[in-house]
Amino acid sequence: MTLPWHLYIMALVYLLAGINHFRSPRIYLKIIPPYFPNPKLLNVISGLSEIILAVLLCIPFFSKYAAWGIIALLIAVFPTHVYMYNNEKARMGLPKWILFLRMPLQLVLIYWAFQYTFFQ
């Protein structure tokens, strides 16, 4: 079975994002809401999840399960977008309108991943 080329683009996006969790952890630690315990561990889990899911997207047997995993991950990290929007220190100097647009972008990313959940 051949996977569509755009699935590989999605995999590359998540692979690079996952690697970035380890290259620049401070960025991610700033945006984890303080009510979540152990931000360092959450950053590692999130980064590893993105890397593993990216690899699994490229394996036909696992691709639809990986797409579901990406949807779950995008939902799980959504509180960071709300936190960034509401917290001056977490904004990293970004204008509020950009942070506001990131929230519906999550829905676009979820929809993109959903396209591969039924791929057989």
TrEMBL record:
UniProt superkingdom: Bacteria
Domain Methylamine utilisation protein MauE: 8-83
GO process terms (BP): methylamine metabolic process
GO CC annotation, single: membrane
Key word GTP-binding present: no
InterPro entries: Methylamine_util_MauE
Residue stretches spanning the membrane: 6-22, 42-62, 68-85, 97-114
Main localization, broad class: membrane
Localization terms from the record: Membrane
Any Pfam family the entry gives: MauE
Keywords: Membrane, Transmembrane, Transmembrane helix
Membrane topology of this protein: Multi-pass membrane protein
Protein known as: Membrane protein
